[in-house]
Structures are given as C-alpha cells and as structure tokens.
Amino acid sequence: MLTLYTAGQEDPNKCRALLTEGTWSHTVDSPHDAQKWEPNGCRMVEYSGGAIHDCLVGRKFVLAGDSTIRQIFWAAARKLDPKLAAAELKEIVAADEKHRDLSFNIEGVRLEFIWDPWLNSTTLKDTLDAFHALPGSTREPTLVKKEEESPALIVLGSPGLWAARYGGEDYMTLFKDGINTVSSYLSLASQGSTTRSSSLSALPSRNEGYSSALNHILLTPVQEPAYSALSNKRTETITPERIDEMNDYLSHLPSNQTSHVVWAFNRMMEESGQSFESDGLHVDDNIADRKIDIVLNSHCNNPAGMEDRSFKGTCCVEEPSNYLFNLALILLCAVMLYTPRAQSMPKFIRPELLTATRDILVTLAWCWLCDGTLQFSKVERHYHPGAFIVICLFWLVGSSSVLHKLVGSAGEVPWSAGKDPKAEIVNNNEDHSFLSRHQTDEIKGLMQGIILLYHFNYASQTLWVYKLVRVLISMYFFLSAYGHTLYLLRTDDYSFKRVAVVLFRTNALSALLPFMMGTSYSSYYFAPAVTFYYLLIYFMLRTLKESNYDPWPLGMKVLATASFTSMFITTPGFLEMTTDVLGTVFRMSFDVQELRFRLALDRYIVFVGVTVASLVHTARLSDSQEVFTTKGSPRLFDSGRFRFWIICSAGLALFLFFTQSGLSSKQSYNAAHPYISWIPILALVTLRNLYAPAQKMFLAIPAALGRISLETYVLQYHIWLGGDATARLTLGGFENASFPLFLIEKALITTLFIGMAALTHRATRTFTVTLSEAGFLGFLAALWVGNLIYT
Prior knowledge:
Layout: H1 2-9, H2 15-20, E1 22-24, E2 37-39, H3 49-56, E3 60-65, H4 67-80, H5 82-95, E4 102-106, E5 109-115, H6 122-129, H7 141-144, E6 153-157, H8 160-166, H9 171-193, E7 216-220, H10 232-237, H11 240-251, H12 255-258, H13 264-271, H14 285-307, H15 323-338, H16 351-371, E8 376-379, H17 385-399, E9 403-405, H18 437-456, H19 463-491, H20 496-517, H21 526-542, H22 551-570, H23 574-586, H24 592-601, H25 605-621, H26 635-662, H27 666-676, H28 678-690, E10 697-699, H29 700-707, H30 709-719, E11 721-722, E12 727-731, H31 739-770, H32 773-790
Parallel strand pairs: 3-5, 3-6, 6-7
Antiparallel strand pairs: 1-2, 4-5, 8-12, 9-10, 11-12
Helix pairs in contact: 3-4, 4-5, 4-14, 8-9, 9-11, 15-16, 16-20, 16-30, 16-31, 17-18, 18-19, 18-29, 18-30, 19-21, 19-25, 20-21, 20-31, 20-32, 22-25, 26-28, 30-31
C-alpha cells in the first residue's frame, strides 16, 4: 500500500495523468458517460463555451499541424459557437480550400490554425518566437507589451503522418527535423512552469485567477490510424513500424520536453472502439471534442480552481495553500499543550472543553487534508447495479447480526441534544415504547448506511433507487419532527437555552466547515433544512401553547402552519427575501432554487411527524388509550395486529407499484413525493412496533451509526467522498489497484470517516452540555465576524 501511495505522489499535480493515461467510462444508464474520457487519478471536466471564454478571453490559442490537428481546432470552435463554426466550415468546404490557415474569433477569444504539417513554416516560427511561458503580470516590464503577441496556448501536431506518407526512405530524418524545430520551445515552456509556486487559497476572491495562468505548449504524438481502413496507397507508407519508430523517438526526448507530449490522444484510440472516420486517419467529432478537453484541462484547470472553489477539475492543478489550515494546526498544538494543565487554569477553561476543541480542530484539518489538498486523489464515481445491491444487502445483513435487548430504563430524554435537567420526567417504561430513542437511532442508522452507499456508488443515476432513497431522506425529517415535537409536548420547555442547544448541535459543523473548505453553509443542505423545520415546529407549538393538549386546536395549528409553509416555500419571492436578509446580516450565500427544491420535497412530512408525536403523547397520558405498548397485550393490539400487517403491507406494496411503474421520470416523482411519502413511512414505523417484544430490542450497529448520522451526512462531503461529495476519494496510486487492495483502501478511509464523525459528535455534545444563552450568542457573533472577514 505504501508503494502505491508513493507512486501516486510522484505526479502530485496530475498533469502526467491527464496527458498520458486514461480510460473511457462505461455506465449502464447514461449513454453520454460512455463517451467520457477519464484520466487515471484525477477528474477532467468538459469545457463549455462560457468556460473557455473565461479562461482565454483576450488571449490567443494557436494550433499548428496537419488535418488531424485541424479537427481539434474545429472542436474548439464548436464549443465556443457551434452555429458560427458550422457556417464557416461549410464555406471552407465549398471553396475547397482545406490546406490553409484559419482563424476564429468569438467574444474576445481568438483561435488560430496554422497549416504546417512539417512544423517548419515562417508563421509558426514567428508564433513560437513570440511565446512566453510566464503571464505578463509576472514578467519584466519590458516584456509586458510583447505579451499581447504571445499565445496563451499552443498545440503542435507531430509531422509523423506526413513524414511517413511523403518522406520516402528519409521519413525519420524529416520527422526529427520537424521535432527539433520546436523542441527548444518545449524546454522554454518547462522552465517557465518551474518558476512558479502555489498561490491557491481556499478562500474565494483572494487571487489573480485566470490572469495569472501560465502559457503552455503541447505536442501531440504521431496518431496511430485505423490501419485496416487506410487506402491502398496510404497502407504502403503509413505502417505500424514507422509510426511506432517515430513515437519511440518522442518518448526518448529529454523529460522537460516529453512531459509536453499528449500521449493520451493515442491512448484514446486504443481504448475506444469505432473512433475513426471512413478514411482511417481522422477521428469522430466526439473524440475530437475530448481531445480539446484534455488540452483545455491542462491549461485552464489551475486558474479555474483559483477562481472558484467549487470547480471540480483536479487534473493539472497546483497544491493549494490555506492559512486557516495552518492556523488550525497551531491552535491544535496549543490546545494539546494546555489540556494537561487545565486543572490549574481558570474554571471556564475546562478539560472536557479543551478536548472537544481538539476534536473539532482535528476534524476540520482532516477535511482539508482529504478534500482540499492533493494528498488524496478524486476520481469519478460510477454506478454498477449488481455491486450496489450486493453491498446494500451486506449492510442490512451485517446490521442484523448484533441485537440488543433493553433492560430497565433509559437515563436520557429521547431526542435531547444534550443532557437536560428535565430528563428526570421520563418514565421508566418510555424508552420501550412506540418509536423510542433506540428505535429511531436504529432506523436512522439503517437509512444512513444505505444513503452513504447510494452516494458512494452514484446510484442517483438510477431512477428506481432514487425514489427509494428519497423516502429514506423524508423519513429522517419525519423522525426529527416527531422527536422535537414529543420533547416539547412532554417538557413544555420553550426556553431560549433549549433553542440554542438544538441550533448549535445541528449547525455547528456545517457552520465551521465553510471557513476551512471555502464552501457555503447552504451546500450542506441537511443542516439548513432541519433548522428551518425545527424553528417552524418550535414557533407553532409555542404560539397558544395551552392548546397543544387539545387535539382539535392543535390540529388546526398544524394545518395552518403546513399551509403557510407550503406557500412560503413554493411562492417566488418569500425565500428570496429571507435569503437576502441572511446574506446581508450574516454574509451567507444561498442557491435559492436548490433550497426551494430541497425544502419543497419534505414540506408536508414534517407535519405528519408532528401529528404522530401528538397522538403518541396523548396516548401516553392515558394508560387506557395506550397503543402498541409493551405492558401486556391490549385488545386492540391482539385483535388488530393481523389487520395492521395487512394494511401496512398493502400500503407499501401499492406505493412501490405506483411509484415504480407509474412515475417514469425524476420530475414526475418529485412532484408527487410530498403528497405520498407519508404512506411508506407510517407503514414502516407501524410495522416496526406491531410486535410488542420487538419494542424492547434494537439493532446495535445501525443504532450506533444513527447516533452520529448528522455528522456522517455532513462529513461525507469531504472525508469519505471528495469534491464536495461529487467524486470518490482515493489514495494516490490506488486508482487501478487490485480488488483486495481496493477493499483495504476503502476500509481504511471508511474507518477514519466513522472515527472522525464519532469524535465530532462527542465534541458537539460536550459543548451543548455547558452551552449558555450568552455562549450561543457569542458563537453567532464569531460566525458573523468571520463571514465579514472572509467573504
């Protein structure tokens, strides 16, 4: 494993990976992905016209070579403006002027093609003489004016095909002459790239971005044609032996020159099936598109990442620096130094608070190390139906292997965010009742395990899996609403301290991570959504709280609040106004459309949770009306158990049949989900409690995961997955490791992930135990000041 990791660190910027190796992805449900080229160990992005414009505006992009390079020129032109490119190409074909220079200008980006299959033209020499590796802002003032002439990017086509076709026995001499003409410029480009050090930051708008991008020269290898499709005349001269000899010459150039050779172009041909046009020389347009993407990734990825932290490309990027990471390490050392001396320090500096601070700092630093630096690689995820189903079955079977039986009473209020003085009001039998704390932890853990596997395996690309997981996510909101409502009804605790404890417990991690990772609070959507619905429930129950114990007035409040919530979420303007206020006061950024979509999906299920909690609370207040109790077997339970089994099972079956057969798109299912998600959720929680002895038992493994489900959901973005939960995290060199090593690597990453989640859970609970109203306000003030400084 150490050898593989070390091998991965030999190419830390992943430029070699981009230019050398890769594979075509093959997925079941996405035809587009079947044409997606993926370098080994990094993520390549497909550049749009807008992204190309951002990278090259005001600059010149030059390609020189034969007709195979001209294809790449037209691929770039199509990306910038497909209609204009098609029109110009049609004019050139009609004029029968193929062998000439071309130019294409669109919105400040200038593309130029120099027809020079031998790489010996005066035009190319002038272009290369004007080239400077460093951008104007980093060169001497005397060179700044000349920067206007220097291309940002040059792609040179090796003269191999023309040398083989027309060079006769001197083909190798002609080929070497062409390469020797440009080789010194490749060395010049390498010298420029070594004079630059990393200047990236996790914080946005603190760098020069595209204006500081280095200029680049790339050389293509001699393209290996489809020999069987070549014409008879071409077959006589363009032979595998000649092509291999010329590419072998390129591979033995000095390292500072061969590092500019885009070997991946030929690798594409080896990996792809029918990639050529009928002449056997020119590739299909989709291959040409991927070739230009490789070129653009090599030049634009680094400045694009500097401009936008959310940029997903990880090929050819520099190691970013983050002074907040360095500050976290300094604070961590200080905390570890002073923790043993805490007993002799002021009372407000308690040892357990120092330990909790240490755990939070360790987690934040680990997040940055995994997802912010280049120590871990990020690669694309792919959905494999069989593997996903098998691993989910393993999880369910493994979860059932450890069964615990409750004895006595629980010493903690269900759903409390920390130990609470009101915990003494809990009756000894309540933790054995309907939807006890152990049950809800078990359910949340089972769901969280499947959701983590769902994200890891990119199963959202499959509709039937997406529908099922959406139900699981809604069940979490149901359980959250159920727990908070039950607590408020039982304790009548509407104090500000209680609100502070819940808000801190829910949001602390999601509020701190953006500072370290350069993300936004709303990107961890679960915490904002849970917070939104908790505040709704809190204010609903606090308003006219004396009516909370009368079913009819409470039902009216629930209906009124649900109607208001639906209108607030779905009507344009309300969310926008709220997020504008939050943005002004707290300098927080929100994607309003994404927030609306997320909140709308679960806008009714939370009120189903409120209703169920009020019914359970009412039943507990009257022993004669208890339902599904573990004390004996009431008549309703005995006589109605089979009936409940039939009703719940039928409800589940009908739900599955209707959603899987009748809703054929994500859009149609999302439209129906808010109105039907309560059916499987109520059926499942009822089935879980039908058998009275089962209320005293719970599955220990998922219950343990359920207790840290909030932390695992948030931390998966950076230390189990990568790229803000859009890529698979892997150690360097493990991308193509054998299956046993793959399992070992995943076990290691998963163990660290669960460990960090447990540490963070323990730390936030420690803080909530001692959290005061003033402490919570101080935390908000610190976040406000931090956002003012860093945004």
